[in-house]
Amino acid sequence: GGALYINLHYFDAFIANFVKEGLILNKQTLETRSVDKSWFEFGYDDTRLKRDKDYMLLKAKFEFQKVDDYTKHEAIGKSKEIIRTRKYKYPSEPSVGSIFQNLTTDEQKQFGLPTRSVAFLIDVCGLKGTRVGDALLSHRHSNIIINIGNAKAKHVIELADIIKEKVKERFGTELRFEVQLVGF
Description:
Blueprint: H1 2-5, E1 9-10, E2 13-14, E3 19-26, E4 32-36, H2 48-51, E5 55-62, H3 69-89, E6 95-98, H4 105-110, H5 118-124, E7 131-132, E8 135-137, E9 144-147, H6 153-171
């Protein structure tokens, strides 16, 4: 459910591209109903499930196209390449993954930035290796905060606030959390 909840993606390949329908629960009335793909109102890192807390996803059906053997083997090769790249690029230490959402194309244009990548902005600010408690901004990927021991949620939040402040000072743009903060 979490992948669909945030419309998980890798570059321009979104899980929304494969969703056919879902079974949702209204948490207020406890009624379930089937909904088609349009109900989810998919966007970048966004769905109706994320905005409307009255609903919970119970089940989803996906639709995939049959492909020939060549296309299948090409996709397998590409997935292996992606896995190799991710092992090199991303830290192996415990983390919650990307902490901030990338900028929208409109934000990139508005602030005159060369990329939508918040990792790039954080890199330019020279923040890799910044630490609060045992929460450390990874040396391998500057949009990932890792736990190097016994980091607490408050350490991660404090570090994220430092990052947000420095990026805003330097570029004028406000970073948005990609992770969901619960209880804060």
